[in-house]
Amino acid sequence: MSNKTRVMIETLQEEIGNVVCISGWIHRIRILKNVVFIVVRDRTGLVQCVMSPEQFEANHIYLETVVRLFGTCTAAKNTLNPFEVLVESIEILNESEPELPFMVNGETLDVQLDTLLNHRVLSLRNRSEQAIFKVQSTLSEAFGAFLRGNDFLEIHTPKIVKEGAEGGANVFSMDYFGEKAYLAQSPQFYKQMMVISGVERVFEVGPVFRAEPHSTSRHLNEYISMDLEMGFIEDESELMALETNLLKAMIGKVAQECPKELEILKVALPKVPDKIPRMKLSEAIDVLKSLYGKTELEGDLDPEGERLIAQHVYELSGSEFLFLTHYPQYKRPMYTMPSGETETKGFDLLFRGLEITTGGLRIHKLDQLKESMKKKGLDPEAYESYLEAFKYGAPPHGGLAIGLERLTAQLLGYKNIRRTTLFPRDGQRLTP
């Protein structure tokens, strides 16, 4: 092996007795009278390296300095590994400033959320922060893998659009070469159009934008939506069955791929039941009234209502998941299929008391869709390119969307969605 070839720390066990080259960040420094111990960190782990005081003093070595060093990997007992590296030479690739805004080498970060986000790149060096996003990446990867395995096609839809998918004022507007355009609230129209095109089954993982001026622990103005849409279904129960198996696959993949990260984060994964409990929204509201004295709910649940009904169902069934069904028409977008005079074939999925999914059956007949738009106060002529797809034979279809950051937060036990967002965008934060 050339001693100029970088070796990753996780493979050093195989290099005992060899001269190795490792590169990374200075994670910890311990200075004794006759020896200096430095811990070096790369993306795969930590290793203790042994230097003489003279070697250490000849270099500007601070915490988080980026180094390349050469030395002999030797069997030794320490708290990190059954080996260490005896440093022969060290090269400073880039110095860190001597004073850090906070220490990043602990088990977790003991800093305020704003501080963590203001210094985001530094905070992401902490292994617990990195573990969050390894889990999140695995969830996203597993979402796509499951759907590809079920004959879904991945698509990439425009994020600059002529009209918002849900109407209303909660859209970000922009100038588009002298014409008014918007940032997409959802890939909804394009998902449906792709189903109608004959592809039948599609999915997308991408950003969506909501202009609500809220400042809560559960909302962002830009987030990652994991969307799917499928044709030739009879009713929304097929979507709920699909999502049940999808969540099993996603959480199973996390268990398989992220044992180290789950240990770092001290997380126990939930069991997805073979059949997730289902409850009509109206029934949930009645339960909350009779058992918890919540008399103010109408047409939807507030955050407290979501938590309480989830707790109630968990006590009855042991399930941490709950489908709420039959949302009222006035609470659902114009494309949602009605059920009877006032309800819809739309649903939400609650996970540990928080909504992570919205889905439902869609209206697939042109005249009915136009009428639904008018009832919502929308002008069908403004949606001409969307409606054009329905003129030439649209199959029954439906779909759903899962918020990636919300799912990650609930899975890992974080109460604020910003903890599971790399670079949050909300009403107060546009940087970094």
Number of helices: 12
Strand runs, count: 18
The dominant shape is elongated
| Helix and strand composition category | alpha+beta
Low-confidence stretches: none
In whole angstroms, the N-to-C terminal distance is: 41 Å
**Strand neighbour order, sheet with most strands:** 6-10-11-18-17-16-13-12
The portion of residues assigned to helices is: 25-40%
Strand content: 25-35%
Query: Which series of helices and strands comes N to C?
Result: EEEHEEHHHEEEEHEEHHEHHEEEEEHHEH
Specify the biggest β-sheet.
8 strands, mixed
What is the mean predicted local confidence, pLDDT? 95
Overall radius of gyration? 26 Å
Summarize the structure.
The protein contains twelve helices and 18 strands. The chain is of the alpha+beta class.
Index terms:
8-stranded mixed beta sheet, 26% strand, alpha+beta, 432 residues, 5-stranded mixed β-barrel, 12 helices
